Amino acid sequence: MKPRVSLQDSALRNGNFSLRIVPVRSEDVGLYEAQVKYRTEVHSCRVELGVITVTLNPPNPVIESELLLMSCNSSHQASLVETCWFHEEHLGPISRTFCSLSGTLSILHPAMSDVGSWRCQLRYSDKEIISATFNLQILGFDGPTNPVVYAAAGSAAD
């Protein structure tokens, strides 16, 4: 797994034996065991790593007004009950939350207002809730609604 895996050498002296994996891949799923020997003592711990994957079709960056499919899947073994998508964690009367039984969200005409942080939340039959956040980028025009721009003679116009 090198060079994606590292130990924080400075933290080892303080008893922190954390393993860091950057970036995490789907094939990293599984059981990890740490074993620390100090003099005659042996300490160990086990951690199971699950992975959640967010895929875009077409891939990021998306072109404005082209059909976008966002999928969210995880390595969790229980039955998927519901998938919810949250955009920018909007609060207030306008909700940007979409829930479905499948893990896929379709946006027929993505616009510049869809740019930004999206979070998918997977809820399973064993009451487990797993989520992942990613940043959606869209290539498009985010200019004035009126296509006529006036500028003073001798000045700059953008």
TrEMBL record:
- Per the record, what is one GO cellular component? external side of plasma membrane
One Gene Ontology molecular-function label: MHC class II protein binding
Q: Which InterPro entries match?
A: Ig-like_dom, Ig-like_dom_sf, Ig-like_fold
Its domain of life reads Eukaryota
Q: Where is the Ig-like domain?
A: 50-131
Q: GO biological process annotations for this chain's record?
A: interleukin-15-mediated signaling pathway; positive regulation of ERK1 and ERK2 cascade; T cell activation
| SUPFAM superfamilies according to UniProt | Immunoglobulin
Name by which UniProt lists this protein: LAG3 protein
- What taxonomic ancestry is recorded? Eukaryota, Metazoa, Chordata, Craniata, Vertebrata
Gene coding for it:
Lag3
